[in-house]
Amino acid sequence: MRLVLSLVLMAALGQTAKAAEYRVETVAIDDMKAVFATVESTDVIPARARIGGTIAGLAVDEGTLVKAGERIALIGDAKLGIETQAHEARIASAAAERDKAKLDLDRAVKLLATGAVSQARLDNDRTQYEIAQRQVSALQSERAVVVQRSNEGAVLAPANGRVLKVSVTNGSVVMPGEPVAIIALENYLLRIQLPERHARFLRPGAGVRVGERGQKNGAESLRDGLVVQVYPQIEQGRVVADVKVDGLSGYFVGERAKVYISTGVRDGFLVPSDFLFRRFGLSYAKLKDGLEVVVQPGQSLSDGTVEILSGLKTGDVLVTP
Fold first, then answer.
1. What's the count of helices (H) and strands (E) in the chain, helices before strands?
2. Is 214 helix (H, G, I), strand (E, B) or coil?
3. Distance of CA 189 to the CA centre of its chain
4. What are the angstrom distances between the C-alpha of 215 and each of 63, 69, 258?
5. Does residue 6 lie in a domain region?
6. Terminal-residue alpha carbon distance, the chain
7. How far is CA 226 from the centre of its chain?
8. What is the domain-level CATH number for residue 58?
9. CB atoms < 10 A from the CB of 67, how many?
10. 9 part of a folded domain
11. Same-domain status, 37 and 53
């Protein structure tokens, strides 16, 4: 019984091995060039002071994550408080004059009914009351302007992002429009530079491969990226392009990453990695006739295939080892 099961199992394995065949054919392979890209933010925005004064209550430092509208510093100006007090005093004085004008108007209305005053006197008192009312409103508006200027002493983050640089400290004196902090938006990308001879191969929508973070001694896993913009101007013999790839939120702005980008197409052989095996430090492939040949593997692609540099020819039929 065991012998029968063994024979059935060996037959099944033989059929599986026979079914796993691969015919070697010449295919077009992208010629990938490794370049270093730098992590950049899509936009770098300064958070500027809207009024002049002295920095107080600085709430951020380099590397701090901020949200749009979050207060990152407070600018104080003693003159604004003095101006507010002056406007309040003027408003109180104008309000007293308005109240007196209202009393004069009410008195004139009563006296007109008895004929003690003329219509001209009543009209004059009414005009004085309206002038006093408008004077109070004007002074209240001027005070509101000073209060708004005081509120603008809060330096707010213009967008969500990370603080790259803080240009001031507590106690620093700033002028209107002076940058307090530089903020990089959270939307990061990779910026690459290639020699101009490769410019014709760059186009928006082209796929690239991005290596792992840091130096890797062995094989590294690659991530897919996409060229989103190619700048039309060549600077110092190099063309600049931006690459969009996921997983850059933890990188430093300016950090370098390895990017593999296609700089042309060549003919070659691609073999699924399942048809290769290692022995004594060499790579082998097994032909259908049972012969095992030494091959020289090249780059590994994301679809699980390996480029074969030598050892095979067109028409060879491989089987899984």
1. 3, 20
2. coil
3. 7
4. 24, 38, 9
5. no
6. 29
7. 16
8. 2.40.50
9. 10
10. no
11. no
Amino acid letter, residue 245: V
The pLDDT of residue 16 is 44
Whether 210 contacts 59, CB under 8 Å:
no
Sign, CA dihedral 287-293-296-297, equals positive
Q: What is the DSSP letter of 212?
A: P
Please state which of the ranges 206-210, 225-229, 276-280 shows the lowest mean pLDDT.
206-210
Q: Tens digits of per-residue pLDDT, 9-44?
A: 344 444 444 548 888 888 888 777 888 888 888 888
CA dihedral 106, 109, 110, 111 (to 10 degrees): 120
What is the structure's pLDDT at 218?
A: 44
Task: Please tell me the distance from the alpha carbon of residue 52 to that of residue 62, in angstroms, as a whole number.
Answer: 23
Q: Are 47 and 162 in contact (CB under 8 A)?
A: no
C-alpha–C-alpha distance, residues 105 and 117, integer Å: 11
Residues 175 and 57 in one domain: yes
As a whole number, the mean pLDDT across the chain is 83
Contact 204, 55 (CB under 8 A): no
The model's pLDDT over 63-107, given as tens digits with 9 standing for 90+, comes to 888 998 899 998 888 787 788 888 889 889 888 988 888 888 888
| CB count in 10 Å sphere of residue 2 | 6
Residue pair 207/226 in contact (Cβ under 8 Å)? The answer is yes
pTM, whole model, 2 decimals? 0.56
Q: Is 279 within 8 Å of 241 (Cβ atoms)?
A: no
Which tens digit of pLDDT belongs to each residue from 155-172?
999 888 889 889 898 888
pLDDT band at 214; cut points 50, 70, 90: low
Tokens for 92, please give them. Answer: 């109180």
Residue 4 has pLDDT above 50, yes or no: no
